[in-house]
Amino acid sequence: MIALEFWFTITLLNYYNIFVNRNIHFSKSVYISIALFFVILSYFSIDYEEIWKKYNKEFDQLPKSKNRIGSWIVFGIILFIIGNFVYSIYLMSQIN
């Protein structure tokens, strides 16, 4: 989940760099700060005091058909984020 959040944010930064301001270059510290932000956010929103167990119980109670539909939606979102990330890297390589 952290990787997907990171890739989505990097995709947005890439698109900003491509379409708005081509002269901006982000340093490694920006990327490290973004990754650290998502790690801390994930810890306090899911891992802290095992909040994920509550969500796990709620999803276990859903009907099988609803769970299947939700799984396909999540799979589609994951493919969209990964595909968009790869495409933004491709566009960045075309600029340089």
Describe this structure in words.
- Helix content is 82%, strand content 0%.
- With 96 residues, the protein is an all-alpha fold.
- It has one domain.
- Helix 1 (2-19) runs parallel beside helix 4 (64-95).
- The longest helix is centred in the last third of the chain and has 32 residues, at 64-95.
- The protein starts with a helix and ends with a helix.
Sum up the structure in keywords:
single chain; mainly alpha; 4 helices; 82% helix; 0% strand; flat
Count of discrete structural domains: 1
Number of helices: 4
Overall SS class: mainly alpha
**What is the H/E string?**
HHHH
- Report the sheet-strand fraction: under 5%
Mind summarizing the main beta sheet? none
Average pLDDT confidence is 87
Count of DSSP strands: 0
Q: What separation lies between the terminal Cα atoms?
A: 30 Å
> Into which percent range does the helicity of residues fall?
over 70%
Cα Rg: 17 Å
Low-confidence stretches: none
Coarse shape: flat
What layout of secondary structure does this protein have?
Layout: H1 2-19, H2 28-47, H3 52-60, H4 64-95
Brief summary of the model shown:
With 96 residues, the chain is mainly alpha-helical. The chain is built from four helices and no strands.
